[in-house]
Each structure stands twice: as structure tokens, then as C-alpha cells.
Amino acid sequence: MQSTELTGLCLSVDVGTASVRAALVTRAGLLQSTAEEPISIWEPQADHYVQSSAEIWEKCCSVVKRVTQHVERSQVRGIGFDATCSLVVLDQSFQPVPVSQDGKQRNVVMWMDHRAEEQAACITNAGHRVLNRVGGVMSPEMQPPKLLWLKENLKERCWNKAAHFFDLPDFLSWKATGSLTRSLCTLVCKWTYCPPEGWDASFWTSIGLEDLLENNSSKIGSVTCPPGSPLGDGLTREAAADLGLDPGTAVGASLIDAHAGGLGVIGADVKGFLLPCEDQPITTRMAMICGTSTCHMAISEQALFVPGVWGPCLSAMVPGMWLNEGGQSATGRLVSPISSSSEPCILPFTGGNIYSYLNSHLSSMVNDGSAVDLLGSSLHVWPDFHGNRSPLADPTLKGMMIGLSLSQTLDDLALLYLATVQALALGTLHILDAMREAGHDIRTLFLCGGLSKNALFVQIHANATGLPVVLPDQMEAVLIGAAVLGACASQDYSSIQEAMEKMAKVGKVVQPDRELQSFYERKYKVFLKLFAHQREYQAIMNQR
């Protein structure tokens, strides 16, 4: 008879910005198999990005069937879902309600959709007390401004027909179990829910959305639970048939994708790695999930209020702990060499990883053995091309580049790429400084996500912040984090904390180059002046 260690598997499903992934994961946190399929993104007009919940579920079913085709259904003990914090709209019969003027059956307002900037600004200016838990500023990437936009702009076509508003992670767990219970992760982080009190009725009334409070707030969620809690009776018969699994298979309350990445790295056992966070509480660690955007996750035992940083959010990632979440928007796109230049040069590049190629080229530009970082001494970037999420919380800020020439050589493109990576690292330092000032004691960075596979990106983050960077043993940390939810729902582990420690593992440690400390101190001063100058220029041009 095989042991539970060998036969007991968790299934993780991760819905990212442009694809759906699934993985089979052992109780020890080892990936057994993975599958991925793309999902559609439509842009019906500028800054409007929409998807289809029907297509997303269809792709979830497809990837799950692919990763489970060679195992017995009974081996899958638990399932965890994570997804982007996008807004799903359904009617009374749980059918899609269009969220665009064109009326097409695309019922998901994506996380990166910035149509509600005006509504977000109005909510911020009203100054309600709920703003204290979102860094003092309402982001257009949160759900209240998006809901207000739908009411103001699509009242007949969408708002009056809508009966259920889900965060995408909660939609997936509902689709799997039939349970309308919402995860505290989504509601606390993106909807202003505050346990144990719950919804603040005065907030929704003050912004003209008091109709969401009807029927015990059934449209936005009246029952909540911490991430990883078992939902309903597990998979319904319909969902089990869709996924090719057994009815009743345990399903854990879901997470936002970035938070799943946090679970997949931040709890790893670091004994023997000589890190400053060894023998220290988990609160000395910050998880960075580096994908389409970058999220900076720090947890604390007490509520810490950080201006311009979301939170504190109770039980939003680790039950019983407070979460602060900083972030940088569109980092993945910004680092792309093709996006970094309006007229990119033709690369003498025939395949493989373009980042590895540029990293190698930068190394070849250094003839005296000095650090590659120093090549960025005369080229500076302010990276907020999609606004600033943290710690300034200003979606109107724009990107800046100082030190460009007319030259369009490969060297120039490589230097611009380097300066952009350095700017993102300095943006992380900016967020760290805000968190430290508010009381966080962060000593080690734990990175995961696509950009964490870029060696230069990782090393520069260590150098610019002066902190060691830990990379996970299993690079797909988001999939590990979602599997943690399934392991808790199936009761293979008694708590999120236990599951994190057992399933997340250290792969590599990258130490900062202390000889570059002075260089980055100076470059950080330039970085902060870029922001100050942008505000100054705006003020001059606003004069009448």
C-alpha cells in the first residue's frame, strides 16, 4: 500500500493575466506536472481591458484534465485556486453580464483596467475612513471604483441586470463548489471589507452604491472565510465532471495570484543559509511576486498603516497576520527590451532568452572588471509608465527617461534595459523605506515570478536594496502557493503556516554587492529627484 506522501496530491489552478496554468503538487511541495493555455484579452477602448469568465473556466477545465490524465482521481486530495483580482459580473441566473459598451458577452473587468480613474479620485477626495486601509488613496485597480463606473456608465446594460459581483478568485471557487462564501483575501484587499466588523455601510452609501447593501450584501458577499478554508462539500457533481475529478474533492478558499506567490515563498525554512531572517519571525521577510506587475508583500503581528501602501489587511494571506501590499504596475512589460525603446535596434539574436542575451552583452561592455551596474551611472529612468501604485499611490504619474542620445545601437538598447531594471529595483527600495518608516523590520527579500528568473533583475534588487534575495527551489511559487490552499482544505496540513513551511523551499540565495552601496545611494537620490521634478513640471504647466 502506498503512503499518503506518495499518493496524496494537491491540484493548483492559477489564472494569470494572459494564461491559465494547472499543476499537480506533492505534499512536500514538488511539482509533478504542469499545463498552460492562453486566455483572451480584449481592449474595446483605451484603458478598458476585459475577459470572459466562461472562457476562463473552460481553460481551467482543460489544463486540469491535462495534468491529471495519468493519475487516479482519488489521488487528488485538494484543490486551490488563485487568480488576478479582476471583477466578474453575473446575473440572477449566474449568466455573464457584459461590462463594455459593445454589449459582447465579456463580463470580466480586468485588474489592469483603468477606466475608473475618475471614480477612484472622487472616492479618494471624499476621504472616508476605509481609505486608511488602502494607503489613503483608492486605486482604480480596486473594485469600488470599477463598480461605481459600471453604475454610472452601464446602468441599464450591466448594473440593473447584475446580481453577483465576484473577484475572479472567488468566482472560480464558486464555480467549483457552488459556495458563495468569499475569501478574506479578495474582500479585504480589494473591496474594503474589514473583519470582524465586515462591510462599512456608510462607505458604500457615501459613494452612491448603497444598493449593494441590499439582502445582507448578497451581491458582493455576506459570508467570508480565511484562505485555505474548505468550501461547501467540495467539488459539485457538475464541476467534477467539467474537471474530470471526483465529486466532493476538497476545495480551499482562494487567493489573489500575487498572494499565492507570497505563500509559495515567504514561509520557507531558511535554516543553514546564514540569512538575517534566520531564527527571526516571518515578519522580517518580504515576498516579491514579479510578473506582469510586481507585488510587495509584508506581514506583521500588529496592524501597521503605511501611506501609499495597501493594508493592513487581516488574514488576507496568512490567517491571523496583517498584510501590507505594495506594488509596481506593468513591470513585466516595462522590462521588455522591445517596450524600452520607441525605435529598437535590430538585435543580432537568433533565439533563446533575450534577457540572458542582453545580460551577457552588458557584461561584455565592461572591460575593466567593474560591476555591470556602474554602466547605468548616466542614464536614469522613473518607471511609472502605468502610474504609481506604491508608495505614492498616484495613477496619473508618467514614466521619465534622462540621458538619452540619438544613437540606436545594441549598446544603447542594453543600457536602457539596464537603467529600467535599476529603476524598478529603486522603486522597490522606495516601497521598503515607506514600510520601514511605518514599523516593518524587513531583512530579506523572497522573490518569485517570471522576472525572478532574470539573473540581472535579481542581483540588481539585492544590490540596490542592500538585502539578500532568496529564490525558491520550485520557481513556479504561485502554483505552490495555490497548492498550499488545497493541502489545507484536505486537512493534509493543519494550518497555512504548517503547509508553507513544509511545501516552500529555498533554492538559491543572492547576496548584495556591498561595494556598490555608495553608487546606489547616489542613484537613489537621482531617482527621487525625478519624481520631484515631474510634480514641479506639472505644477508649472497647470499655472494659468
Short description:
This protein has 544 residues and is an alpha+beta fold. 34% of the residues lie in helices and 19% in strands.
Overall description:
By secondary structure, this protein is of the alpha+beta class. The protein has a domain at 9-255: Nucleotidyltransferase, domain 5. Helices cover 34% and strands 19% of the residues. It has helices spanning 4-7, 53-68, 117-126, 143-153, 168-177, 184-190, 201-206, 214-217, 237-243, 257-265, 331-335, 354-364, 410-437, 455-465, 477-489, 496-503, 517-541, and strands at residues 9-15, 19-26, 31-38, 42-45, 48-51, 76-83, 87-90, 108-109, 164-167, 182-183, 224-225, 250-256, 285-290, 294-300, 310-314, 322-328, 380-382, 400-402, 444-448, 469-472, 506-510. It has a seven-stranded mixed sheet, with helices on both faces. A five-stranded mixed sheet has the order 3-2-1-6-12, sandwiched between helices. β13 (285-290) and β14 (294-300) form a beta hairpin.
Please specify the SSE layout and strand pairing.
Blueprint: H1 4-7, E1 9-15, E2 19-26, E3 31-38, E4 42-45, E5 48-51, H2 53-68, E6 76-83, E7 87-90, E8 108-109, H3 117-126, H4 143-153, E9 164-167, H5 168-177, E10 182-183, H6 184-190, H7 201-206, H8 214-217, E11 224-225, H9 237-243, E12 250-256, H10 257-265, E13 285-290, E14 294-300, E15 310-314, E16 322-328, H11 331-335, H12 354-364, E17 380-382, E18 400-402, H13 410-437, E19 444-448, H14 455-465, E20 469-472, H15 477-489, H16 496-503, E21 506-510, H17 517-541
Parallel strand pairs: 1-6, 6-12, 10-11, 13-19, 19-20
Antiparallel strand pairs: 1-2, 2-3, 4-5, 5-8, 7-8, 7-9, 13-14, 14-16, 15-16, 17-18, 20-21
